Every structure is written in C-alpha cells, then in structure tokens.
Amino acid sequence: MSELKGKTALVTGAAKGIGRAAAIKLAEMGANVAINYYSSQKEANNTVNHLKDFGVESISYQADVGDLGQVTKMVEDVTEQLGQIDILVNNAGIIDDGLLLRMSDEAWSRVINTNLNGTFYCSRAVLRTMVRSRWGRIINIGSVVGLRGNIGQTNYTASKAAINGFTFALAKEVATRNITVNTVTPGYIHTDTVDVLSDKQKDTIMTWIPMAHFGEVDDIAHMIAYLASEKAKYITGQIISVDGGMAI
Ligand code: NDP
Prior knowledge:
Bound molecules: NADPH dihydro-nicotinamide-adenine-dinucleotide phosphate
Distance between the termini: 33 Å
CATH architecture: 3-Layer(aba) Sandwich
CATH superfamily: NAD(P)-binding Rossmann-like Domain
Low-confidence stretches: none
Strand order of the largest sheet: 3-2-1-4-5-6-7
Oligomer: single chain
C-alpha cells in the first residue's frame, strides 16, 4: 500500500465528509497530504493527526478555493512544506438552494465561484509543475445532479455540469504529459449535508436510486484512490458515477 510514496496530494475541503475519506485513502497509499479547509479548523487538525498515523507527512491549510490570491498562496506554501503537488482532488463544494425565480445573485455567484472557479483556480495553480514533471492526477468531484438536474439546484447543477465540460477539455490539453483529469460524480452519500434531510425528502430521493440506499464516503474515496494510482494511468477525461445507479 505504498504506491504513492514520495507523492504529494492536495485535497480541498478535506476536514470532513468525502474529502476527509479521500485524504485518508491517499495517506494509506503513502502520499503526503495537505488538508485544505475553509472553516472547520478543528476537524482539519484532527484529520492531519489521523493521517500522520500512516507515517506520512500532513498539514492543514486554511484557504477559500474561490479566492485566486488565497489559492495561489496555498499552492506555494504547500509546495514549500510538502513538495510539489502531484495529485489534486477538487472536492470543496457548497450548495445554496432555491427555485430559480427566487434565486438571489449572491446565491448563484457563491456556488459557481466555490464549485467551478475553485476547481479552475486550483487546477491551474498545480498544473505547471505537473507538466514539468510529466506526471499528475487531477480528480474533480462532480455530482449526479450535474448529470440529471434537480429542482431548486440550478446554481449547483450548472456548477457541477460545467466541471464535466472542464474535465473533457483539460484532459485533452494535458494528456500527452501523462496527466490524467477525471471527475467522480457521487450520488447521495451519508454526510452532514445529506443526513439533515427530512425523512420525507429521504423517502423521495430513495425512489430515484436503483440500489435503494445512500452511499458511504468510502465508496467515493476508493474511486478517488484508484484514479490516483498507477492502475488508472490510461483513464482520462471520464465522468465516473458512484451513485447506486441513480444516473441511469
Ligand atoms: P461537506 O460539506 O462535508 O464538505 C464540503 C467541504 O467543502 C467542507 O468541509 C468545506 O470546508 C469545504 N468548503 C466549502 N466552501 C469552501 C471554500 N470556499 N474553500 C475551501 N473549502 C470549502 O460535504 P461533502 O463531503 O458531502 O461534499 C464533498 C463534495 O462532494 C462536494 O463537492 C459536494 O458537492 C460533492 N457531492 C456530495 C454529495 C453527497 O451526497 N454528500 C453528492 C454529490 C456530490 P469547511 O468545513 O472547512 O468550511
């Protein structure tokens, strides 16, 4: 389980949920991991301590992925402390739901800025060194909602569908440099966001999922770890659903 030894990963929004699970898997595989967080400092530090148990180096780093200046500084600082970033997991994401007729400019912009611009800023910031070293993995976290839409989520759906297009285009740009770019699209996964839904909402969602149950964070983390590994070296530009069949 040391196939990523010597590599450095940056996982955005990794203090908890899917990002944390992905960071743990990458550390298990031997990678040094930077845990980016926005507000969850305590959870981020707990995650760092947990990762160190695997004998890898890990740091937490506070930054807003939707702020170009903060992203640039984060990538510089992480590179200085852990070495050049070989694996980027663009996981940070938010929702701010509402029907389009009532959606504020702020709700629209905030979601697009964090989910889509954040993916752009972080990817561009790590790409130059990946190109130079002729090895890299960019793994974006999309959503099943970006494939089929959802009432009240035009902003979130647009941001996640755009990440799919971003994946296709960037994968083509960097393919000859041995850099793969893929997107994992989770269905409904047991996390803070999903667990607070009402029983009525959960019952409705369950009718959309052929496997009739929610996923676990590790279902997504395993796919992220696989895409980061050498086993996935010939996979690029793909949108991979891990959703109990919901996108069918
Ligand atoms: P969480 O809310 O647990 O994790 C999202 C993380 O994003 C948070 O920890 C948060 O950090 C971080 N974040 C939010 N805004 C920013 C920002 N501006 N800069 C840096 N970090 C930020 O949710 P999940 O684990 O569920 O979601 C992870 C990803 O998976 C998201 O992209 C989400 O859209 C996607 N997804 C999740 C699904 C699910 O069912 N859970 C389904 C489909 C997609 P902090 O806590 O430090 O503020």
